[in-house]
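Supplementary Text 2. Reproducibility record for the structural model of the 427-residue chain.

All settings were left at their defaults, and a single model was retained for analysis rather than an ensemble. We include the record here because the model underlies the residue-level annotations in Supplementary Table 4.
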Amino acid sequence: MRWLGALLLAIAAPALAQQPPAPPPAVSPGLQARIAALPAMVNGTGDFEAYFAPAFKAQVPKAQFDQIGQQLKAQFGVAMKVEKVTATSPYAATVELGFEKGVGTVNIVIDPAPPHRVTGLLLARVEPRGDTIAKIEAEIRALPGTAAFGIYALGNGVTPVSELAGEQPMPIGSAFKLWVLAEAARQVHSGTRKWSDVVTLGPRSLPSGITQRWPAGAPVTLHTLATLMISLSDNTATDTLLIALGRDKVDAMVAQTGVADPAATLPVLTTMEAFQLKASANADLAAGWRTAGPDGRRKLLTANRARLAGTVIDPAMFADKPVAPDIEWFASPRDEASVLDWLRARGGDQALEILAVNPGTPGAALFDYAGFKGGSEPGVISLNWLVKTKKGNWYAVTGGWTRRDAAVDERGFAMLMSRLLTQVAAR
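Retained model, structure tokens:
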């Protein structure tokens, strides 16, 4: 359906054959000047204050911008020159920025009014020159801690194309929400539920998300909860949806989607239960959780419901170091591919549209379809895409990285996974 417009244009094209093509928009002198200064800005030698508009600086402070530049330099060398400019208007363009060891695609927008400061700058992707899956695998293999990834062809089962430790169970953070989405889709398909069903917003969890600030008891549809859960990783929406669907039903979905060792992650915790078990005040409960099997864990939650609910959570405890990464949700890259394949084949149009609200990468334009769900906390990152190439082939691209001793470089890992996506797009 989403490509109907392109099909209609293709059919109508002969009638327009005599029309001259529209000339490309001219690049304004102000935009030319900002593009010319782009290599210096990325290398950290430009005038940050004069280059960017106040609204941009409020969103991306100089320290954060400089950190990104340093990461790019470490991985791809210094920015050398602008290699190509494709204007989309006199005040906006897509720029190919050449680095020593790669080419970056940068979208830039300036204020039409003098002094034409930059209001938008997005590094869509960086492709190393001569990049290959083997090169990316070598970089992932070299990461400290435990890292894994997989590229899987879908349509006739889940077939590995390339993987590193593809069957390694790892903590996945909010990527567990894929199971919740799958169970919601199953119940809708079975007629038990409708996406339009209204439930009451449940107890507040911690951010991420927005519903923790909504009025208590707000009426919300299952579709709204699922969309917020996937696109914004909204924790309160997730917990509300999980409870509405039934934890036992979500637990069953973990096994149904093809997870190799479902017992490793059962029962599926709500986000708030995970925070409560990780709290230092509940160290004894955490110890019991680690040693119990699924049935013992269910009894632990039931017996300590009031204590857990009364636990005061300090959000700062998750600020900069791993906190009990073994009290989590666990899956391997191949497991994640399996749940994505379940959603592709059995989730229905609504579930796929929800999964695509936030495609998780500026490189989504390389595909006919891109759906995404990730998860992260200090020491944990999991990134998972379901994509359909321009040639019509379906793939799952999944990966994770975890450390017990320090936080992981989330931006750096996302860049590695983005490079894998670029490789898949060309297949």
